[in-house]
Amino acid sequence: MILLAVLASVSGGAVAAPPPARVVSLNLCLDQLALVLAAPGQLVGVGDVSQDRHLSARWREARSLPAVRMRIEEVLALRPDLVLLDSYAPPHMAALLGRAGVRVELFPEAVTFDDGVARVRAIAAALGRESAGTALADDMRRRLAGLGADKQDTPRPLAAVWQANGFTVSSGTLPDDLLRRAGFRNLAAERGLGPFAPLPLEVLVRAAPDLLILDGSTSERPSLAEALMTHRAARHAFGETRTLVMPHSLWLCAGPPNLEALDRLVAMRNAIEHRR
Amino acid sequence: MKAVGRYRWALVALPVVVLAAISVLVGPAGLDWSAAIRDALSGRDSVPALVLVEIRLPRALLGAVVGAALGMAGAAMQGLLRNPLAEPGVLGVSACAALGAVIAFYTGLVRLFPGALPIAAMLGALLGTAALFAWAGRGATVATLLLVGVAINALAGAATAFSLALSPNPYAFYEVMFWLMGSLADRSLDHVALALPCVALGAVPLLLMRRGLDGLSLGEETALALGISPSAVARWIGLGTALTVGGAVAVSGVIGFVGLMAPHAVRPFVRYRPGATLVASAGAGAALTLAADIAVRLLPTGRELQLGVMTALLGAPFLGWLAVRRRRGNGSRGAPWL
Q1: Does residue A72 form part of some domain?
Q2: pLDDT tens-digit profile of B160-187?
Q3: In Å, how far is B291's CA from the nearest CA of chain A?
């Protein structure tokens, strides 16, 4: 019976079954969607990172639930009948949960806005909340169309993302997808850099992109990694009008907060076009 | 005699100036030099001027300032303790400075007051120096000094890692490498402004104690007969060491072995007088640090090697060589500690 349940979940969870009553989600990105989609009382635990207001758009709601670290005992203590994991979760975790008779749903990476919409539907299906999923997915599509983001006719300004330790993001990442949708070219993608690659300050300044996008902070406390983003050379080269600070909660995970990120990017693009 | 003195100054300054110039030339991409210099002089924030003034210049300046601080502090410690193996990095003074800097930085104190960074580093270095001098001061054997230094170094390093682990910032813990194996990558003129005054301030007592160090090298009784108070010399050298090392480590992390190698490199040229060694060793320390910092940028490593790793690669074998040479007892060449 347990084996059957595991097999059913691995084969896509399409088998008609009563909706799960006690769900634990263990990934920052899945948690935020589950918090929106789950029925009241259905979600009984989320990852501790989801309570961090610097990283999670749903940290308030997450704080009303027990925070779970990636420890199997903590998960089992919540007596879940469904656990949501991302495909990068440690493999032994899913295996152990399966042996304990808990259904596990693994979700693939979501690195585009469309992936986010698909994920909304998939999580809703796993929770037995298909109608809520359809409503949210349609709402995301409608709001995206309303942003006027997808206009690609005018010359597209160049943007560079600069994160902690001087890293940048390139093709195959969510920020890259959102930049394209907002009508920007991504410096890292144009240079053929890997998805997450170091971008030396000197190279960044010399490339002189129209917009510099810095990561928001991850904590009230400072770090050298993040202090680098406020280096005098970057401040002087770009100034306030050509710098955008993007909070992690808006574009670290695919989902509805991406619309707010797109809104800010489109506003910056309009300002840049206006100055020209 | 005057001409010789001037000639010696050039010997100290020339390598530093040349290496600082080379340091400014080294970068990940080419630079339009005429535009960079023209815009920098006219105060325009053009891209070449920014790269020159805000990125390359601070790195070269810090290489010179940090290296000079470590070279002078090393010479002062070797002179005072009459011990060829004394050095702020090896004996844990730098690690104590790093601990102070880490506490000031990661608690967020530096956001309220940027000067807290070097001040805390100097306080840390002062505590480290005081502990070192108290437990293994003048007259202690080389073995005692090194053992006490090893203990201070290990404790300060562990406390630094512990402090970083307490920070809620997810990046903090991974920055232990910067603090214990320092670097000059991506430093700015802000860091020059923090370090330079502290190092200059610390150099004053060290330079004022040149005669005291020379006197002490003749033995404590001779020094007393010359009107030199050994304990006063120790206090001022300790203070100067703490200020110079603290100012340097606050912006660069621990860069070891510079203070060990620099005095040995120049001592034959200053006739083994500890007082004269101070200035020459500051120059040698600056040159050595600049050269090592140029090397880490030119080496074909995937990611830039930490400067502290490079100086340790050079300095640790040198320390071993010094220790072996001492043991064989053939190192005595006129100076009592060699």
Answers
A1: yes
A2: 999 999 999 999 999 999 999 999 999 9
A3: 20
- Asked if A226 and A217 touch (Cβ cutoff 8 Å), the reply is yes
Domain that holds residue A123: 2-144
Chain A residue numbers with beta carbons less than 8 Å from the beta carbon of B111 are 222
Q: Class assignment of domain B61-328?
A: mainly alpha
Mean pLDDT along residues B187-205: 97
- Give the closest residue to B173 by CA, choosing from A269, A201, A223: A223
Asked whether the beta carbons of B213 and B79 are under 8 A apart, the reply is yes
Give the pLDDT confidence score for residue A115 in this predicted structure: 97
Is B45 part of the contact surface with chain A (CB cutoff 8 Å)?
A: yes
What is the arithmetic mean of pLDDT over B261-283? 92
Q: Do A206 and B105 touch (CB under 8 A)?
A: no
- Boundary residue ending a domain (A144, A173, A207): A144
Among A89, A121, A144, the domain boundary falls at A144
Tell whether A28 and A139 lie within a shared domain: yes
The domain locations on chain B are 61-328
- List B residues 99-128 in contact with A (Cβ-Cβ < 8 A): 105-108, 110-111
β-strand pairing of A167-169 with A196-198? antiparallel
Please indicate if any CB of chain B lies within 8 Å of the CB of A225. yes
pLDDT at A16: 60
Q: Which of A164, A223, A232 sits opposite B54 (nearest CB)?
A: A232
Quote the minimal CA–CA distance from B306 to chain A in Å: 14
User: Do the interacting molecules here have an ipTM over 0.95?
Assistant: no
- pLDDT for res A149: 62
Same domain, A128 and A212: no
Nearest to B292 by CA among B23, B1, B12: B23
- The answer to whether residue A221 neighbours chain B at the CB level (below 8 Å) is yes
Cα distance between residue A100 and residue B280, in whole Å: 71
B26 to chain A: nearest residue by CA? A202
